[in-house]
Amino acid sequence: MYLTIEETAEHLSIPESQIRTLIQQKRIRAIHDGEQFLINQAQFSTHFEQIEKYKQMIQDYLNEHIPEDIDVKDED
Asked: Fewer CB within 10 Å, N or C, the chain?
């Protein structure tokens, strides 16, 4: 499914100007049909999977139990 720049910006929750910049930098693949740029939505599926993976990794790290340091009770 192809999206316009406006639809892509809404889909990714970022400004349209940033989408245009990413297209110019060739970080987002797009085709120009003579009037507008069309962006294939499928290229963002791995992006969202990676975001979810990193969110889970951060949550696991924050939930990790920190063992009590054995030197804490040792007072000279």
From this structure: C
